[in-house]
């Protein structure tokens, strides 16, 4: 089966030190060093640069990393296929998600999935849209949640249109009492997560000519609500983010409606893995059941 050196190579990249890689693989640090030395000898070049802060790939190491990732992923798919043939339903799923999906969707999705497939291991990594798509492209994640547009060449499965709302202090009422207009936003500050200042959120802010010097950045969605509640400015959050967090604030639509399209991204090769295919089915079934009026029914290569 797969040479141990490839597993060592991947573990070092993920853990950033030989010591932690040894802990993950349940071997001694000397075994890790020996494996790396042997692999470097076989390849004919150095793979890692070691420093006090940890371990980094050399340019040569970076060049072969995607190839080794492909080999590791193919081995995982082979093991999963064999396990399914034997009726074990074994395997693993490495899933990337942004905060509102982690809070609102993943707990019930994973709970139901574990009931159906108790032997499939699930690993979740929280990150922003672009980091998730990049990790799926390189094969470090099997699939992930992102938002359109996706620039990487991946299979993209659009899920729902998620409306973006204006969050205001309770003493604020828009002039027309229903929607927030450009006139309501003159001299207003906005609070948002730094990672959200792109794509759909930026489109809404640009539409109303909100200048960068009127922006303040917060850590997460709940802290945005707390800062709005304290009168420090207005917030801008999608509907999904508001499902399980709360504050003494008002929520209004903009007079021009803005949406983000939440999607799944998956590497076409990893989509062939039985456990990944089962997770995709579990996610789409959950979203279809709980958001029947918002579900989108098409997929494409981006």
Task: Provide structural commentary.
Residues 1-58 form the HTH lysR-type domain. InterPro entries: HTH-type_LysR_regulators, LysR_HTH_N, LysR_subst-bd, WH-like_DNA-bd_sf, WH_DNA-bd_sf. This is LysR substrate-binding domain-containing protein. The protein has 302 residues and is of the alpha/beta class. 41% of the residues lie in helices and 23% in strands. The protein has ten helices and twelve strands. Strands 3, 4, 5, 6, 7, 8, 9, 10, 11 and 12 form a ten-stranded mixed sheet that branches. α1 (4-15) crosses α2 and α1 (4-15) crosses α3. The relative contact order is 0.15. The mean pLDDT is 88.
Low-confidence blocks of residues: none
What form results from the Cα inertia axes? globular
Largest sheet: 10 strands, mixed
Number of strands: 12
Class of secondary structure makeup: alpha/beta
SSE string, helix = H, strand = E?
HHHEEHEHHEHEEEHEHEEEHE
Radius of gyration computed on alpha carbons:
23 Å
Mean pLDDT: 88
Number of helices: 10
Helix content: 40-55%
**Through-space gap between termini:** 34 Å
Portion of residues in beta strands equals 15-25%
GO molecular function: DNA binding; DNA-binding transcription factor activity
GO cellular component, one term: cytosol
Keywords: DNA-binding, Transcription, Transcription regulation
Domain HTH lysR-type: 1-58
What does the secondary structure layout of this molecule look like, with pairings?
Layout: H1 4-15, H2 18-25, H3 29-43, E1 48-51, E2 54-57, H4 59-85, E3 91-97, H5 99-104, H6 106-116, E4 120-126, H7 129-138, E5 143-147, E6 155-169, E7 190-193, H8 199-207, E8 215-218, H9 221-229, E9 234-238, E10 249-253, E11 259-266, H10 274-290, E12 300-301
Parallel strand pairs: 3-4, 3-5, 7-8, 7-9
Antiparallel strand pairs: 1-2, 5-11, 6-9, 6-10, 6-11, 6-12
Helix pairs in contact: 1-2, 1-3, 1-4, 2-3
Pfam families: HTH_1, LysR_substrate
Family: Belongs to the LysR transcriptional regulatory family.
InterPro entries: HTH-type_LysR_regulators (IPR050950), LysR_HTH_N (IPR000847), LysR_subst-bd (IPR005119), WH-like_DNA-bd_sf (IPR036388), WH_DNA-bd_sf (IPR036390)
